């Protein structure tokens, strides 16, 4: 015997309105429906689920535990319907896909533009939006659903995110040509820990890891200037206002000031992976899955 409950979308919509308004009359006015019709629909829902969903109070209604559960799932249903409608309208408009990307600057400065260009060459009717964020904001954007795909580093905590290695990155030291360290092929953290630094903003992953390593050495970093742009950091180094520690992928060699040297930081903790991630690969759109597949060697199998 089939005991599957089949819910009517109109009834669910009226139920959500009543739950949000906490008042039958206000919900009926919002949905342009008679109060008696709303009450009848709610009674039919309660009969269908076999338990009260609302308690009628003198000044309105309050949800029962079953009502709270139904409200949560009903909202999920309508969010999925909106997402379906948006995606199908994109197909109708000839876009055939919409991808929202949040990324750290390391990806945006180098290979991500080429990746997007190559992808659009194959899927020209896909609409792609790209926003630059800190690693933490990228992960938060994925978790909240504001972003479909995120690019962040392995230094960023990403609980709840499915991610795959994309590129390797390494911290390096920027010095001007006549700096005493300019002739070195690589540097250790102890070589630069007492130098005057030009730092990234305090919430950046680079700032956090450098401060953590300095504390481990019993030192405090001497940061004279902080700027959000790694290219600006390179220009300030060229003016001999301090040295800077930057991820290799943050600064393209073609953008460096003439004569500024980029020297690898030879520390295990200075190495990181650039990752590409999504919140739920199984629920991702076909456009997102095709983009992921173009980035990593093997597209992950769906569970």
TrEMBL record:
Residues 7-64 form the HTH lysR-type domain. Keywords: DNA-binding, Transcription, Transcription regulation. It holds the Pfam family LysR_substrate. Transmembrane segments: none annotated. InterPro entries: HTH-type_LysR_regulators, LysR_HTH_N, LysR_subst-bd, WH-like_DNA-bd_sf, WH_DNA-bd_sf. SUPFAM superfamilies: Periplasmic binding protein-like II, Winged helix' DNA-binding domain. It comes from the Bacteria. PANTHER family: HTH-TYPE TRANSCRIPTIONAL REGULATOR YBHD, LYSR FAMILY TRANSCRIPTIONAL REGULATOR. Belongs to the LysR transcriptional regulatory family. This is LysR family transcriptional regulator.
């Amino acid at each position: 015997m089939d005991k599957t409950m089949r819910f009517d979308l109109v009834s669910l919509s009226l139920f959500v309105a009543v739950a949000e308004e906490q008042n039958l009359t206000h919900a009926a006015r919002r949905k342009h429906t008679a109060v008696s019709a709303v009450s009848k629909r709610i009674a039919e829902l309660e009969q269908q689920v076999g338990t009260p969903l609302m308690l009628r109070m003198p000044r309105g209604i309050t949800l029962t535990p079953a009502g709270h559960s139904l409200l949560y799932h009903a909202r999920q249903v309508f969010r999925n319907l909106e997402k379906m409608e948006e995606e199908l309208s994109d197909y109708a408009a000839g876009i055939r896909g919409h991808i929202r990307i949040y990324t750290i600057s390391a990806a945006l400065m180098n290979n991500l533009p080429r990746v997007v260009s190559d992808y659009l060459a194959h899927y020209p009717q896909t609409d792609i939006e790209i926003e630059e964020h800190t690693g933490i904001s990228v992960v938060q954007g994925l978790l909240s659903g504001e972003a479909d795909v995120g690019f962040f580093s392995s230094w960023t905590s990403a609980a709840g995110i499915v991610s795959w290695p994309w590129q390797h990155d390494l911290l390096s030291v920027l010095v001007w040509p006549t700096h005493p360290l300019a002739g070195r092929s690589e540097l250790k953290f102890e070589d630069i820990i007492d130098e005057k630094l030009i730092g990234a903003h305090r919430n950046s992953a680079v700032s956090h890891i450098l401060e953590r390593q300095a504390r481990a050495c019993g030192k405090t970093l001497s940061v004279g200037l902080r700027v959000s742009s790694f290219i600006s950091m390179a220009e300030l180094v060229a003016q001999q206002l301090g040295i800077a520690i930057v991820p290799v992928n943050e600064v393209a060699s073609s953008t460096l000031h003439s004569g500024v040297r980029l020297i690898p930081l030879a520390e295990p903790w200075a190495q990181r992976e650039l990752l590409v991630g999504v919140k739920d690969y199984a629920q991702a759109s076909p456009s997102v899955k095709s983009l992921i597949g173009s980035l990593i060697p093997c597209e992950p199998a769906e569970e």
